[in-house]
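<tokenise_the_fold>
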Amino acid sequence: MSSARAFKYLPPRVADHIRGLGISARRPMQGGIQGLHRSPDFGASVEFAEYRDYIEGDAPNLIDWSVYAKTDRYMIRRFQDETSLRACVLVDASASLNYRQTGPVTKFEYACSLAAGLMYLLVCQGDAAALSFFTDKMTQRFEPVASTETLSPILLEMEKVEPKGAGDIEKSLHEAAEMLKQRSLVIVISDLLQPPAQLARGIQHLQHNRHDVTLFHVLDAAEIALPMHGLVELRDLESTEKLLIEADEIRPRYAQAVQGYLAEVSRICTACGAHYFTVETRTPMVEALAKRANLF
């Protein structure tokens, strides 16, 4: 990646700090080149998987003679082939991501930085990474890239994207599940402003198609604990509806409701077999990426 161009969402200081991190997948992946991740196919890598009976035409040197000595059967050792990982990063670009109160950047800017860092880690370890933005549907797609050189144009295009419109995470995840034809690592970055039950249906569709799913829940700290006092007018960034509240009066109930919501989202993700991480926009990017890196 050229050092002559400083990317907004992947500044050189961040790239330098995260380069040593790695990302792996729990489910066996399918890829086009040999790499670091388990494949559902079998080949001649170092990880033993199982035995199978010898079939006429198999090379004799594949026979496990120690097994033959014990069982008087010709058996072939099958190995788990290793493959490159194919990942798809899905970034929520709905209007609610424009929110910024206590953090140094908006939720959308933070989400884009997280996406850029994840894609950079993936291509640096020899894997392929694609990127899609979504609101209530997929709005912009970038085909998989597998090198820092081919990642650079995507990083430039990301700087042009502006969050707008209403979001529908469930619908977008259903669309992603239908769009992805190859088993992949799917990383969703969103503020998850949708009833948890609807979110669960989208995750379950991805999991049913045997994708490995990770969710990054991006929040401004002000969404967790109300920092304002007195009478406050709130405006929904997606619907533009307004609500007048007495912040001090509702703060305890609001905090309780938020914690209950976060716990329910975490429970649903665990039940669906997805990895779930909450990150505030004040969280250093290296720390946020380390939550997912080297998970296994």
Remarks:
- Residues 37-83 form one domain.
- Residues 6 and 84 are 28 Å apart (CA to CA).
- The mean pLDDT is 85.
